[in-house]
C-alpha cells in the first residue's frame, strides 16, 4: 500500500481479526472443521491495515497467503484461537470472522481409531467449544468496537439480531451462506449490517470490496464510539 493515498483514520489503533476455519482433532489423523476459505477475514485484516491500524490476524488453517502489512498468528483449534485472541487484548477493534467449529471431540484419541471388522462405527461424542466473539464482547478488556459475523442459511436477520445481543457485539455482518449463494469459498458476498440502529442492506460485491467498505464503516463507528 505504499502508493495508497487513502486517509488513515485508524492510525495508532490496534485491531484483532480472526479468519478461516478451526480444526478440532478427533485422533492424530482426523478432525472436525467448518467450510471457510479465509478470503473474507484476510481481506478485512488487510483493509484495516490500509486504513492505518496495527492489525494482528489470528488465522485457522487456510490455503491462502498471509496478507501483507499484517502480523499473522496461525492456530488450529478454537481453544488455540481463543488463547491467541485473549493474549492480544487490549485492542481498539476486534473483528471475528472465523468460522469456528462449534463442537470438538469430547476426548481426543491419542492413537488412530481403527476400524473393527463386523463392529458398529465408533460413536463420536462432542463437547461445545468456547465462543470467542462472546468472550471478547463481554471481556474486562473489551475492545471499543467489537464486530461479529453471522453465517446463516435461514432467518438471517432474526438470527443476526439474536447474536448481536447474545455476543455483546456492536454490529453483526450477516451473510446468507446457503449453497446456492456461492458465498462459501466464492469471491463474492452480499451482507447486511445489523446493529442496534437497524439493518443496512449492502449490494452484492466482491469480498475485497466488502472488506474495504467494512473497514471504512469500522473507522466511522469507532470515531462515533470515542466521541
Ligand atoms: N464465533 C466465535 N466462536 C465460536 C463460534 C462463533 O467467535 N465458538 C463467532 C464467529 O466468528 C462469528 C459469530 O461468532 O463472528 C457468529 O458465528 P456463527 O457460527 O454464525 O454463530 P454461533 O453463535 O456459533 O451460532 P450457530 O452456529 O448455532 O448459528
Ligand atoms: Ca457456529
Describe the structure.
With 227 residues, this protein is α/β, with parallel strands linked by helices. The protein has one domain: 3-Layer(aba) Sandwich (Rossmann fold), CATH 3.40.50.10300. Helices cover 26% and strands 27% of the residues. The chain has 5 helices and 14 strands. It has helices at residues 39-50, 78-87, 132-137, 156-167, 207-226, and strands at 14-19, 23-27, 30-33, 54-59, 71-74, 93-96, 103-105, 126-128, 145-152, 171-176, 188-189, 191-195, 198-201, 205-206. The strands form 4 sheets. Strands 5-4-1-6-9-10-12-13 form an 8-stranded mixed β-sheet, sandwiched between helices. Strands 2-3 form a two-stranded antiparallel ribbon. The chain is globular and about 65 Å long. The chain starts with 13 loop residues before the first strand and ends with a helix. The mean pLDDT is 95.
Amino acid at each position: 500500500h505504499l502508493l495508497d493515498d487513502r486517509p488513515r483514520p485508524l492510525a495508532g489503533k490496534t485491531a484483532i481479526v480472526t479468519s478461516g476455519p478451526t480444526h478440532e482433532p478427533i485422533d492424530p489423523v482426523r478432525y472436525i472443521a467448518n467450510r471457510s476459505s479465509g478470503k473474507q477475514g484476510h481481506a478485512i485484516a488487510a483493509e484495516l491495515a490500509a486504513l492505518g491500524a496495527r492489525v494482528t490476524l489470528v488465522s485457522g488453517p487456510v490455503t491462502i497467503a498471509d496478507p501483507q502489512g499484517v502480523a499473522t498468528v496461525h492456530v488450529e483449534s478454537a481453544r488455540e484461537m481463543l488463547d491467541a485472541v485473549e493474549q492480544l487484548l487490549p485492542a481498539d477493534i476486534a473483528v471475528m470472522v472465523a468460522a469456528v467449529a462449534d463442537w470438538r471431540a469430547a476426548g481426543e484419541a491419542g492413537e488412530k481409531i481403527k476400524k473393527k471388522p463386523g463392529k458398529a462405527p465408533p460413536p463420536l461424542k462432542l463437547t461445545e467449544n468456547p465462543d470467542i466473539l462472546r468472550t471478547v464482547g463481554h471481556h474486562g478488556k473489551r475492545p471499543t468496537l467489537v464486530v461479529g459475523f453471522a453465517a446463516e442459511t435461514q432467518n438471517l436477520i432474526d438470527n443476526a439480531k439474536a447474536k448481536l445481543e447474545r455476543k455483546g457485539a456492536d454490529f453483526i455482518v450477516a451473510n446468507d451462506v446457503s449453497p446456492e449463494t456461492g458465498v462459501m469459498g466464492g469471491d463474492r458476498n452480499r451482507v447486511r449490517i445489523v446493529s442496534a440502529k437497524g439493518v443496512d442492506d449492502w449490494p452484492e460485491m466482491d469480498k475485497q470490496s466488502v472488506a474495504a467498505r467494512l473497514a471504512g464503516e469500522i473507522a466511522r463507528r469507532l470515531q462515533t464510539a470515542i466521541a
